[in-house]
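Human: I'm a chemist; would you kindly supply sequence and structure tokens for a protein?

Assistant:
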Amino acid sequence: MTASAPRVLVSGNCLTAGLAAALLRMGAASETHALPLTGETPDALRAKLDTLAASTDLWLLSPNNKVGRAAAQAHGKRVQLLPLIQFGAFQPDICYAWHRGTRTLTSPHYNSAIVVWGWRNGLDAGATAALFRAETFAALGYFDAWAPGLKDLQRAFADAGLAHRLADWFLAVKREGCFMHSINHPRLDAVVHLARVLAEEAGLPLRREVQSGEIHDGLNGTIWPVYPEIAERLGIHGGSYAWKYLTQNRFIDGVEDFVAQAFAGYLRQGLGREDLEITYQDASPIDRALRRITAMACP
């Protein structure tokens, strides 16, 4: 490795480890340090950043990393912001939910909005599974999620000062079909393409291409399917009702089994029908749409 490749710190969300690995393998960095924000208190994060300051040259930071940006300024570090990738068009049914009293998120964190609604409204597993059909997806706006998803990407790239590079990245990744494992976990090819964009913007050398299987990014722990009806509307292959929880070696094939296991999981977590609620988004449009579908009168 020549001396021209800088030492790079990457500190952001779930993409942190994958971006650091890709930059190193590309030869864009002589060494990389991955410092995810998840689980770090501001004081602990600042202490780690202060420790790494002397051994790093360029910092890649997410726009929401206020501690990192302040530390970079204090240490006189060069900063390149990285976009927070979120794109819900492939898996628009994913939501987060918690216990409405304790505000403890469910485990796993990803839920189906349809399943959460069925649980809250007293449907059994069979009736809930029957809601997984084109009529329901249309009513929920799942077939129209591409434009909002693109707006999320436009906002993310603009926040990182990379609005002019979105087209390069997006054209490259959408050739692969579904480029997301879930709403906020891109597939590895998408992470590698983003690393290339960031390297080019920072003026880093690109000495080699990343080959399949060369790096691990930790983002494929949960692979949420693209439902067949949605895949057909998007014109992509591979639609299914197969959920893959790779870190648990757990695989669910079919809506009926998925709903049954979700309901069983809520019971194990002590979540009564009235306890579970969708969070981080307005659930009222979901409720209105599904009440119309099931012909249930609002209380």
DSSP finds twelve helices and ten strands in the chain. Residues 33 and 170 are 26 Å apart (CA to CA).
